[in-house]
Design a protein that fits this description.
Elements (H helix, E strand, L loop, with lengths): L2 H13 L7 H9 L20 E4 L2 E3 L2 H11 L6 E5 L5 H7 L4 E6 L2 H13 L5 E5 L12 E10 L4 H4 L2 E13 L2 E10 L2 E9 L18
Parallel strand pairs: 3-4, 3-6, 4-5, 6-7
Antiparallel strand pairs: 1-2, 7-8, 8-9
Length: about 220
C-alpha cells in the first residue's frame, strides 16, 4: 500500500471538505504516518473513513472528527498542551506539530513507552509521554493553554479543567442524551462552559470518563 498517497487522499477527501482550513493541520496529517501507530494487521485500515480500536479502550478517531477537534482547540505555536489519553502517540505527534510543547498522559505503560518511541523516531523533541491517570492529568506540569481529549467523554472533566490557564481551552467530544458533539470547554475564572462545534460519529467513551452509574431502588 502507498501510505503517502493514502495520507494525501485522506486529507483531500475527509479533512479539507469538512471545513478544516488550517493548513498546519492538513500538513501534519499529510506528513505523520498514521499507520505507524497501530499494530501491523491494522495498518491498511487506518486511512479508511472509520474509527479503529487498536488497543483496549484506545481508538484512532475518524480523520474527519479528529481534524475538526484539533481545529476547534485553536492551538497556537507558543502553546503548551496537555494531551490526555495519548495511546500510541498519533494525536501527540499532530499536536506537537502545532504547539511549542506537548505533555501526554497514558495509563497503559506499554502504550506509553510505545508512544514515546514512536515520537522519538519521528524526531519530535517537544513531546513527552508520562504514565499516569488521564482523568487526573498532569498538574505538576501545568497550567496549560490547551488540553486535548481525543475521544468521547460523558462527564465534565473538572480535574483537567482546573489545570487550564485563564482563557484556556479543553477540546473533547461530549456525549449527552445519546448525541456526541465535538467542541471546547472555555475557562473563565472558576467557571467553564462547553461550546459545541460539530456533530461527531464516535460513541465509544474513553475509560475513566464515563457517566457514573445510577442506582435505582
Amino acid at each position: 500500500m502507498n501510505y503517502e498517497a493514502a495520507r494525501r487522499h485522506m486529507v483531500e477527501s475527509q479533512v479539507r471538505p469538512n471545513d478544516v482550513t488550517d493548513l498546519r493541520i492538513q500538513r501534519a496529517m499529510e506528513t505523520i504516518p498514521r499507520e505507524m501507530f497501530v499494530p501491523q494487521e491494522l495498518r491498511d485500515q487506518v486511512y479508511v473513513e472509520q474509527e479503529i480500536e487498536y488497543a483496549p479502550g484506545r481508538r484512532l478517531l475518524r480523520a474527519r472528527d479528529f481534524a475538526k477537534l484539533v481545529d476547534a482547540a485553536e492551538i497556537r505555536a507558543g502553546d503548551v498542551v496537555l494531551n490526555a489519553v495519548c495511546g500510541s502517540g498519533y494525536s501527540t505527534g499532530i499536536l506537537a506539530s502545532l504547539a511549542e510543547m506537548v505533555v501526554s498522559v497514558e495509563s497503559n505503560e506499554t502504550l506509553a513507552a510505545s508512544a514515546q518511541d514512536n515520537l522519538n523516531s519521528l524526531g519530535f523533541s517537544n513531546a513527552a509521554v508520562i504514565t499516569g491517570d488521564p482523568a487526573t492529568g498532569a498538574a505538576g506540569q501545568g497550567p496549560f493553554d490547551v488540553i486535548f481529549l481525543g475521544g468521547v467523554i460523558e462527564t465534565k472533566p473538572d480535574a483537567l479543567l482546573g489545570q487550564l490557564k485563564e482563557g484556556g481551552r479543553l477540546a473533547a467530544i461530549l456525549r449527552e442524551n445519546g448525541v456526541s458533539r465535538g467542541g471546547v470547554f472555555l475557562k473563565s475564572g472558576a467557571a467553564s462552559s462547553f461550546l459545541p462545534r460539530f456533530d461527531a460519529a464516535s460513541s465509544a467513551v474513553l475509560p475513566g470518563f464515563e457517566r457514573p452509574k445510577e442506582f435505582v431502588f
